[in-house]
Amino acid sequence: MTEVFIKQPHKDRKLFRAEKRILEHLPEHPGLPKLIGVNDRDGRIILEKIEGITLYDYREEHRRHFPKCLKIATGISSVVAVLHQAGVVHNDLSYNNVMLRGRQCEPVIVDFQDSFKLGREYKMQRSLRGLEFFLAPEKYLGPRPFACLKSDIYSLGAIIYYTITGSPQSETLLTDHNYPKQLRNIVEKCLSPSPRLRPRVDEVIKILKKLV
What is the spatial distance between Cα 179 and Cα 201, in angstroms, rounded to a whole number? Predict the structure, then answer.
């Protein structure tokens, strides 16, 4: 029997409908949550329960093994690639929205209430949600904030940075020459202030797989 996780009702019905629509159309993949059902009356979403811990909890347990962390970062990038191939912008990637399943720490990306599908919706970032370190600057700067695939790439770069270093603040990864140059370079590109200068997710995966 499948164990389930019941997400608490959305107070905002628009967010409930948006998350429901995204979850119903996500591709089947072990790195994405499996929708069991929804209750349209009270706004509850029923998902397959993921046995694991968040990326934040994993790093807070002082697990500093570089090869393992690099493998996790590569796995997270691969799940982001599945989303982007489906035209889905997650729009809130952070260490709280990545679960690591089981002993192998297989990444699962969760929480799709701010997600949207390209070509179907016009996205204007009217309310600022998320953790500052993982937020792309175009989502909160300028007269017309917006989100796009490259906004996810910025967040992915921040996730890789955090996964490797365990810190959302220091400049360790970009300045410490003990880390591979290719890793430092690709993360720096992901964190570019300009969306146009950020790489595609497949370029990120290509570099990480060389280093694993």
Answer: 21
Among residues 184, 185, 190, 181, the alpha carbon closest in space to that of 158 is found at: 190
Summarised one tens digit per residue, pLDDT across range 6-28 is 777 767 777 788 888 899 989 99
Contact by Cβ (8 Å): 189, 199: yes
The structure tokens listed for 133 are 């370190």
Measure the CA angle with vertex 34, ends 33 and 40; round to 5°.
Answer: 105
- For 114-147, the pLDDT digits (tens) are 899 887 554 544 456 778 899 999 998 888 888 8
6-18 burial: b if 16+ Cβ within 10 Å, else e: ebeebeeeebbeb
Burial class (CB in 10 A: 0-12, 13-18, 19+), 31: buried
Phi-psi region of 58 (alpha: psi -120 to 50; beta: other; left: phi over 0): alpha
Residues in the chain: 212
